[in-house]
Amino acid sequence: MAIMDSIKARAKADKKTIILPESMDNRTFKAAEAALKEGIANIIIIGTPEQIAENKGDCDITGAVIIDPNTYEKTQQYEDLFVELRASKGMTHEEARRIMLSDYAYYGCLMIKSGDADGMVSGACHSTANTLRPCLQLIKTKPGTKLVSAFFLMDVPNCEYGDDGVFVFADCGLEQNPDPEKLAAIAISSAESFKLLTGNEPRVAMLSHSSKGSAKHDDVTKVVEATRIAKETAPELALDGELQLDAAIVPSVGKSKAPDSPVAGKANVLVFPDLDAGNIGYKLVQRLAKAEAYGPMCQGIAAPVNDLSRGCFWEDILGVIAITAVQAQAQ
User: Fold this and answer.
1) What is the CATH number of domain 149-288?
2) Strand 149-155 and strand 292-299: pairing?
């Protein structure tokens, strides 16, 4: 079974309520129609009647809950919560209402914080910062999590590497230049995400342009130190570094460059040294290898709020809805 088929089946087995706040984009409605038809999740769409009419086209969203923040009966309750949560920052009722009615991601996060929904998917027409800022301010991080990071679930067709072409790539969407402590935390969170979504054991490679000391540079030292911290923090994980990409995923190269590594040649979780490498890497694999790339998915938030690439297709949104539902099941 393809990984997304498996994730959808799990989502259907315990349906969660997922918010789609981007009622200004037709892709939202196409994804909502498919999610409702397949029974993947209960869907809430935030928008005014005018936005819905203008953008839904001929999509059948029967069964979705449509919430207009201007008239919804709980808007005052959400406004009060917003003011309470941001009181230390000087939030007023006037400012809270202005933000809620103009930025539906904030409204969606307040619904989740109130227990009226389980997760949210946004980012088809908003930046990552605009998607994540509300959840970091209102939902906060998961207990025991050192930082919020992002990953992509990659499904590469006709691929013998990873878990039959399935990988987690991190961080490809959020942390610009993580220090060793942050890089170690990203690795551990990514391993947990891989296990949650695939059910298989993660094998984590800390990537670099060096394999086991083949090059000397401060960038290499960062990855070596991150590997040490991650191993000390989570000694049960199959994790190793520093490894070049080919040493991480190609068995013959891994055996040659890192013969004593428990991960080399068979990694399924690839942790990139910085955002430049991660973002370039996932897009190369997506475009040249025709991989399905779901994300950037967020890890470390107290409830699942996930981002999208602004170049996504509606099918990508559907996949992220399913992943968000499975993440919500694990909360």
Assistant:
1) 3.40.50.10750
2) antiparallel
Domain ranges of the chain: 3-140+301-329, 149-288
> pLDDT value at position 168?
96
Largest CA distance in the chain: 65
Contact 85, 106 (CB under 8 A): no
What pLDDT is attached to residue 309?
76
Same fold, 3-140+301-329 and 149-288: yes
Tokens of 286: 């997506």
Classify strands 292-299 and 305-306 as parallel, antiparallel or unpaired. Answer: unpaired
Among residues 275, 90, 99, 250, the alpha carbon closest in space to that of 178 is found at 275
- Cα–Cα distance between 20 and 9 in angstroms, integer? 20
pTM metric for this prediction: 0.86
pLDDT at 181: 95
- What is the C-alpha separation between 228 and 315, in angstroms, rounded? 39
Q: How, if at all, do strands 65-67 and 42-46 pair?
A: parallel
* 236: number of Cβ within 10 Å: 7
Beta strands in 94-148 (DSSP E): 119-121
Q: In terms of Cα–Cα distance, which of 64, 75, 69 is closest to 29? A: 64
- What pLDDT score was predicted for residue 143? 80
Supply the DSSP symbol for 142: P
- Low pLDDT (below 50) residues in the chain: none
| Whole-number pLDDT of residue 236 | 95
pLDDT of residue 187: 96
**Residue 219: per-residue pLDDT:** 86
Q: Which residues contact 218 (CB under 8 A, 6 or more apart)?
A: none
Does residue 182 contact residue 175 with C-beta atoms inside 8 Å?
Answer: yes
Residue 42 pairs in a beta bridge with 17
CATH number of 3-140+301-329: 3.40.50.10950
Coil/strand/helix, residue 43: strand
Distance from C-alpha of 198 to C-alpha of 119, rounded to nearest angstrom? 20
